[in-house]
Amino acid sequence: MKILHTSDWHLGQSFMGRSRAEEHQLLISWLLDYVTAANIEAVILAGDVFDTSTPPSYARELYLELVLALYQRDCALIVVAGNHDSVSVLNESKSLLQQMNTYVITQPSWDQLEASLVTLKNRAGERAAMVCAVPFLRVRDMVQRELGQSIDAKQAQLSDRIQAYYRVLYEQAKQVAEDLPIIGTGHLTVLGGQKTESVRDIYVGTLEALPPALLPEFDYLALGHIHKPMQVGGKEQWRYSGSPIPMSFDESGTQKSVAVFDTENKNVDLISIPNFRELRSLKGSRDELVEALAAITNESELCLWLDLTLTDDINIGLFQEQVSELLEGKNIEVLKVQRLRKHISLNTNNGETATLEDVTPQDVFAQLLEEKQLDEDHAKHLAQMFNTFIDENEVAE
């Protein structure tokens, strides 16, 4: 049996005010063609199906279109919730989709472990693999807060609980799997993963990243959250699939792919995904950028999106007018123009202020702590509490 692993689709993403609907539609068409051609019998989508907790209607339609199309191809689908996903939104259609060979797992199931175990069968009706479907593990689902508990104690408790959940689910799977390969999933940061600017740090309580050694010996581990495809723990069969389309300009140079795991020979193949829309970053002086823009062309179907960084301290408004004239009639659009900043500061000596695109909530809070001149330990404690708050309140239920 061949199982395709993908993650971090972020359906409904608004990319600097632009919709990604066309790219996602082309992605679904490509994926369905590949599933048919390569005889894929199951797909695992390891979190962040949607970009926000309230995805637009077209994003939900794309999701259901994918489910229906895979069902028509007799291909199972396992969906686990990511940190961007709303549990309630994914649960809305959970029971219905299960009738279409689609299994949606949104929360850990401590009391009913079998609810997070999915037995995959091949088209001959034979059992081929057992999946321990683990979604993004929110703090409130894992530990109970205790007054007066130290940061280190909270971190140790959370780490122990995550390890315990994976272990108890794995042991339950072993009891029923017999000689079947056991596949794990997860949506979190495992030590060794490389982040991009579109990946917000997941602070699971005070635990930023999980050591691979805490996880059971899965035959394959399908991870989501990191947008670059890579293996973890030095194991070819433990990997992030990466996002299928670039979610930020700094991902534009990464070859996007899906991973295909063969349950019979335990091999993993990386399948390259076409680049449906080019995202390109250019940096230089005004004259260098003008020269580059005059020569640039785009022959693809979708508009090329540009991110321009000026190394000159010039008037951006006048430069943008010049850029508009250069690109008139071309299938190219500039989404962002910025001056090079060696260090982002909320307030600069020349009266400029950073924009919301320049900073994160963590940046703002860090500057506030610096201004208050708190002692290092106290500041670290407050920063960790703030990161926990951000994590627990970003996705509305």
TrEMBL record:
Give the Calcineurin-like phosphoesterase domain ranges. Answer: 1-229
Return the Gene3D superfamilies for the record: 3.30.160.720, 3.60.21.10
Q: Which InterPro entries match?
A: Calcineurin-like_PHP, DNA_Repair-Maintenance_Comp, Metallo-depent_PP-like, Mre11_N, SbcD, SbcD_C
Q: Where is the Nuclease SbcCD subunit D C-terminal domain?
A: 276-372
The protein's superkingdom reads: Bacteria
For this UniProt entry, the molecular function terms from Gene Ontology, in alphabetical order, are: exonuclease activity
Check the record and name the Pfam families matching this protein.
Metallophos, SbcD_C
Which keywords does this chain's UniProt record carry? DNA recombination, DNA replication, Endonuclease, Exonuclease, Hydrolase, Nuclease
Complexes and interactors: Heterodimer of SbcC and SbcD.
What does this protein's UniProt record list under function? SbcCD cleaves DNA hairpin structures. These structures can inhibit DNA replication and are intermediates in certain DNA recombination reactions. The complex acts as a 3'->5' double strand exonuclease that can open hairpins. It also has a 5' single-strand endonuclease activity.
Protein family (similarity comment): Belongs to the SbcD family.
Protein name in the entry: Nuclease SbcCD subunit D
Q: Source species, please? A: Rhodanobacter aciditrophus
